[in-house]
Amino acid sequence: MADHLDLHTVGDLLHHYPRRYAERGELTRLSDLPLDEHVTVVAQVADARVHTFNGGRGRRLEVTITDGSGRLQLVFFGKGVHKPKAELQPGTRAMFAGKVSVFNRKRQLAHPEFKTLGAESGADAVEAFANQLLPLYPACKQMESWQIQQAVDTVLGPVGHEEAALAGLVDPLPESLREGRGLATLPEALRQIHRPRTKTDIARARDRLKWDEAFVLQVALARRRRADAQLPAAPRKPAPDGLLTAFDARLPFTLTEGQRRVSEEIFADLATEHPMHRLLQGEVGSGKTMVALRAMLGVVDAGGQAAMLAPTEVLAQQHHRSITEMMGELAEGGMLGGAERGTKVVLLTGSMGAAARRQALLDLVTGEAGIVIGTHALIEDKVQFHDLGLVVVDEQHRFGVEQRDALRSKGKQPPHLLVMTATPIPRTVAMTVFGDLETSVLDQLPSGRSPIASHVVPAKDKPHFLTRAWERVREEVAAGHQAYVVCPRIGDEEDESKAAKDKSPEDDAEKRPPLAVVDVAEQLTKGPLRDLRVEVLHGRMPPEAKDEVMRRFAAGEVDVLVATTVIEVGVNVPNATAMVIMDADRFGVSQLHQLRGRVGRGSAAGLCLLVTDMPEGSPARARLGAVAATLDGFELSRIDLEQRREGDVLGQAQSGVRSSLRVLAVIDDEEVIAAAREEAATIVAADPELAGYPELRTALDALLDKEREEFLDKG
Questions:
Q1: How many Å apart are CA 260 and CA 251, to the nearest integer?
Q2: pLDDT tier at 573 (50, 70, 90 boundaries)?
Q3: Which listed residue, 80, 150, 214, 660, has the most CB atoms within 10 A of its CB?
Q4: How far apart are CA 62 and CA 346, in angstroms?
Q5: pLDDT exceeds cutoff 70 at 429
Q6: 524-561 tens-digit pLDDT
Q7: How many CA atoms lie within 13 A of 540 on its CB side?
Q8: Is residue 396 scored above 70 in pLDDT?
Q9: Cβ neighbour number for residue 456 with a 10 Å cutoff
Q10: How far from 630 is each of 205, 492, 584, 599, CA to CA, in Å?
């Protein structure tokens, strides 16, 4: 239980809340079961039959269950047939748990765990059972929902005596706050959530437990903001007639209103004596790099250096290329033909040759280079700066907090920090996840960017749609444009044979491995795209080979690039107008949005085709439909969040706080989060060390054990 569900203590168990509650007679809609998820259902056996195969040697039991809304098939094989055959007679009512798969286009549970219900025939027992709300817990194969319920019952003791069993609990909410907001006590809330007598009990318990989560997290962030505000930093004000002015003068276009506004916010922060902590979020192509570059030039003007951290070598090189192009002779400070007010812009990546690397390190330590762009190679001990004033982190979710921290420690004083992301984050998520960062949003696209049309291609239901998709790619190429084909896998993995071995023969026959770049490229060159110039690009190629392919694609020498998600961030080829994403259902919403942003970057309209084998009506198809229906990243991030919940959003890499959210839903509970933030700010301002709140301090220590406290400190 400890390993699979991360439940180690009685406290962990009590805070492992039911996902939902079944009532006797409540019809869990079998017709709506989500594919590939572990579910618990309450239903009645309609039919049970044993089939033989392999000339009578193999046996398969098929049981059909119904709940009035739909039917579901259960299958048991081999020796596993005996117990269910005896116990699951038609008319038997039971709880079933297992993973929903599809076989022959029908949903099924293979070898589900089950527990028959209502075997006691006494009228009282039936009555008690009839009125009981059955808690169904988030479970796993090793630990079914009813086993968790038994463990909780052991802790809570006899019905009616729960408060005594829970008396010693530490309550993080200050009493004045709890009473002022009319919230239940903690023992009361835990009793109500695990053993509710009515639905009102559940609602009251959830209201209280949401507050615990929101409040403790906001106190952690409020203390973090306060600590940051105490740190010293060197103010960086651009010289009135320096590098930034010269750069602005040579721009061939005017900045958008949004770029101007966000730049002002950043320059105001840079001028203060405390480190800036700002999150810059903007749609793919909204011009974040331009805003970041102007901030870096302003810092160089003020005598400091700026470092830009990119998640991949391809992206670091791309940023270096586009920044030196935008700056022209201003990027050649100290060189023949360079502008007198210019500065050196150097690249530092892991695969550079020794001589180039030595020169780059020298330029950094002497201050010759005002701007450095690199991957995590920038973080190594050997890298020393003359005076690091600003760190720009691109695509923050790909960087661990320790990495940002290591780069930050290279400044004489803490440098200013600008974090950029192209995955738009709803306001509440930003408040919860990046509560220690001020947020700036770029929400308008520069003029000249083209709209992208997106369509779902249901390859299995309508194979002719896929044929048409390849025709569309040929049409784009014939018109002088280029295309991407994206696949979830590379295709030369060694562990495929192992994965095949781990599968039991009953495993869903339709679950094939995701499509691979290597295989798809071969099929396309032999088939629908046979006379086009098709190349592959993936993360396991040597850096020189990757660069060469990208260079040739950018130069128009390649028609179709078959790639993994290495192209997801920052690759900029304005002539690429079409993208076909294979097995699109295997990607997340924000990832699809990012990938799509690679086309339509020039004046010609973009086209994105999302290819899937998933059946109509499945959650995966609904998700793809949502992506196809809107280009608004903020709207998509809400959909993404509602589907994934916050586990991924508040993952360690993003916030330094393991997702401790169990009942708080970041999107739905905006008001609770905002109110908790205010209460937290008031308490921390009055008592930063929380000396008067020992229970809150204890809850904070539990949320931020040593390792996570450091995480938040590094932020």
A1: 14
A2: confident
A3: 214
A4: 66
A5: no
A6: 999 999 999 999 998 888 878 888 898 899 899 999 99
A7: 8
A8: no
A9: 21
A10: 37, 35, 16, 15
